[in-house]
């Protein structure tokens, strides 16, 4: 059993990773600005902000491993908030890295994004690229071991309108006409958050192979956005008039088929043989949206 801190643990991915770590038998502490509605009896909640050095140092004290998921994670929101993106994503990460060095943390797991490969993604992409460089330099300078986890298109429960699949599904359930900023042929490798969390939590038990490595965590299959909408329609037995803005050659700031515009450090793709079926995952998410609307 290890002592593990998860930042951003009241949120979508962070809460699921915290649960996966707890189910593996680790002693998990959750660090976030607001209490987690998903806190388990065997978990500890620590309130604080990653931009506040004192609260970060207090949270990291006594921890062996740190999973860093706290961030301004909404790509669209970050487009118009460059200063906030730097303060939260970059400065917050550096605060945490320094605290980990001072506390003697064994390994730092950083939640990055496939957008680091891309020219798209705006200030969000810039922040993740910068953070990866800081993570690597802290290892070179101070010997803080790390694992970088670059997440792709996640979906599942415990999320909100900041999540792409949730946002599209919510609108499909409540509107008769809707527009999509990309093209009808846009493709994503969707992965259910439970699968991503399980893979992420395994890093600790696979230290010999994961230390100072970078992994890409995405789904096994490419799915066109037009096919995703077809799945919505078939599951809900509902028709919605769709307008794909990108088909008129207007850019959206998102990649269309692949994020790979250039490659920073090589990332190995982490996959699982057992994963949540997309149809089943969407049905679960529909139920979650319906429950929130009651």
TrEMBL record:
SUPFAM superfamilies in UniProt: NAD(P)-binding Rossmann-fold domains
Gene3D superfamilies with a match to the protein in the record: NAD(P)-binding Rossmann-like Domain (3.40.50.720)
EC number: 5.1.3.2
Boundaries of every NAD-dependent epimerase/dehydratase domain copy: 4-217
Alphabetical keyword list: Isomerase
A Pfam family reported for this protein in Swiss-Prot or TrEMBL: Epimerase
Superkingdom in the source lineage: Bacteria
Keyword Nucleotide-binding among record annotations: no
Gene Ontology molecular-function annotations: UDP-glucose 4-epimerase activity
Protein name: UDP-glucose 4-epimerase
Record organism: Neolewinella aquimaris
